[in-house]
Write a structure and sequence with these properties.
The protein is of the alpha/beta class. The chain has three domains: about 90 residues, Winged helix-like DNA-binding domain superfamily/Winged helix DNA-binding domain (Arc Repressor Mutant, subunit A), CATH 1.10.10; about 240 residues, Aspartate Aminotransferase, domain 2 (3-Layer(aba) Sandwich); about 110 residues, Aspartate Aminotransferase, domain 1, CATH 3.90.1150.10. Helices cover about 40% and strands about 10% of the residues. It contains 15 helices and 14 strands. The strands form three sheets. It has an eight-stranded mixed beta sheet with strand order 3-10-9-8-7-4-5-6, with helices on both faces. It has a four-stranded antiparallel beta sheet with strand order 11-12-14-13, covered by helices on one side. A two-stranded antiparallel ribbon has the order 1-2. The longest helix has 25 residues.
């Protein structure tokens, strides 16, 4: 047995949760991979190795059979097992040199680009007043929606299809968009995706090459900036004036322009008709595409809603993006994009290749929910309710008597409130979070040097008593900050 020492001096623990066969196999495998047991070397007989290790012969035989099956050992009848030739030099301790950028643990350039972003804003637990862009799930018709889901699930085997987008939902959604948002398209131009952000990112991948210039509003939606940077674009923040995106003042010629013309995110500005026409003419002249994010324009409170920019697009430059997570509630994770006709075929391939597909059951349920009129009815109900909540929040903020300027938006689900110069909005938001309130700093929505300090506050998901309690906390925190100055 002493002759088997050294190379076969393995340590087996009979009290371990790992079987003796597994322990022996692992240690033999490690010795072969490290080159301690060289290629061609014969192992002792199973009887001799079992005696040496004080285990049963069956334990040794089972370990050897496993390693033979994995290709570490050659086993032939009448001969002792031998270490098999190893084809890969890395298995015998050789480590090939690799460029540092591709070493294990290195991430791609795409991952590096998204890794530097502070978006999305991370919040713990359930939303609290005044988290923006949140719908009130308590007012959602859950019973009707549940019935639509159950019916869709029951009919799934019958309606199974290889298509990524249900024609029934494409037609129902398009009919709604034509009637209420003035969209002009065919049903095949409507694509369903998991989120509006997914739609924005997929458009960016389809139309942008690395180095292309993309414009975003400043202040604006950080998700668009992240999607464009991830696609390799050079992102330019374009400042706003009283009419929205002030593109006439920009120097660089863009390939893609991102706008929120119905309710500018986050200021709530409405882009008037002359600026809309000028933007479409400019995009056609320079060969740029436009993403119109119509994220919460279903809710409009003053006058008639302005039709979607896409409906006035005659050159086929506008990608119209929307979402159900805000018009219905956050758990319904589905967005959509209406693409120009010439992009239908390539966009279908891009959707398939990237796997950006919404559950067929969810699509069928949405088709029924919209087709039966429940979607439009819910929008009408929530528009009345959100209108009251907007007024409640804005009037309460104005009555605080503090250095806070409120611009009441014509629609949407949130309000932007400007803070006086003596306030740091990030500091204010941190203090509000400690007091159990959510607000987002306006300064973090800017992508240019010009920045304003303010609070981005949602009102849609909170009832009157919650709004009143939240404003009381906000007033207390700001008065405490004023007292320290």
């Amino acid at each position: 047995m002493d002759a088997l020492g050294g190379l076969f001096d393995f340590r087996l623990d009979p009290h371990s949760d790992v079987s003796l066969t597994r322990q022996l196999g692992d240690q033999l495998r490690d010795a072969i991979a490290a080159g301690t047991l060289a290629s061609g070397r014969r192992l002792p007989s199973s009887r001799a190795l079992a005696l040496h290790l004080n285990v049963s012969r069956n334990t040794v035989s089972a370990a050897i059979e496993q390693l033979a099956m994995e290709g570490y050992l050659d086993v032939s009848r009448g001969r002792r097992p031998a270490v098999a030739p190893l084809s890969s030099p890395s298995l015998i301790g050789f480590e090939p040199e690799m460029p540092a950028s591709r070493a294990l643990g290195a991430i791609s350039q795409w991952a590096q680009r998204i890794g530097t972003s502070e978006w999305p804003f991370m919040e713990d637990g359930r939303p609290k007043p005044f988290a923006p862009c949140v719908a009130d799930a308590r007012e959602f018709p859950h019973a009707i929606w549940g019935r639509c889901l159950r019916a869709a699930a029951r009919s799934a085997p019958v309606r199974r299809s290889a298509a990524c987008n249900r024609p029934e939902l494409q037609r129902a959604l398009l009919q709604h968009l034509v009637q209420y948002r003035g969209v002009s398209a065919d049903a095949q131009q409507v694509f369903l995706l998991p989120t509006a952000q997914a739609a924005i990112a997929l458009v960016a991948r389809v139309v942008l090459d690395p180095g292309d210039i993309a414009w975003v509003e400043s202040p604006g939606y950080a998700g668009a900036r992240v999607a464009f940077e991830a696609a390799g674009a050079a992102v330019r923040g374009v400042e706003l004036d009283q009419c929205g995106l002030a593109f006439e003042t920009s120097i660089d010629t863009p390939r893609l322009i991102f706008v929120t013309p119905a309710h500018q995110h986050p200021t709530g500005l409405l882009m008037p008709a002359p600026r809309r026409r000028a933007l479409l003419q400019f995009a056609t002249r320079v060969g740029a595409y436009v993403i119109e994010d119509d994220y919460d324009s279903e809710f409009h409170y003053e006058g008639r809603p302005v039709a979607a920019l896409q409906g006035s697009d005659r050159a086929g430059n506008v990608f119209y993006v929307g979402t159900f997570s805000k018009s219905l509630h956050a758990d319904i994770r589905a967005g959509y994009v209406v693409v120009p006709k010439r992009f239908v075929e390539i966009f279908a391939k891009a959707q398939r290749h990237t796997g950006q597909i919404v559950s067929m059951t969810l699509q069928d349920a949405l088709a029924d929910f919209i087709g039966e009129g429940h979607y439009a009815a819910h929008i009408r109900k929530m528009t009345r309710l959100y209108h009251l909540r907007r007024d409640r929040l804005c009037h309460a903020l104005m009555a605080m008597g503090l250095d806070l300027t409120v611009s009441m938006p014509d629609g949407g689900m949130q309000v932007a409130a400007q803070l006086g110069a003596r306030y740091d909005d990030i500091d204010v938001c941190c203090r509000l979070a400690q007091a159990g309130l959510t607000a987002r700093p306006l300064s973090r929505h800017y992508f240019t040097e010009a920045r304003a300090s303010g609070l981005f506050l949602g009102f849609a998901a909170w009832n009157e008593s919650e709004i009143d309690a939240g404003v009381a906390i906000l007033a207390r925190v700001m008065r405490e900050m004023e007292a320290r100055k």
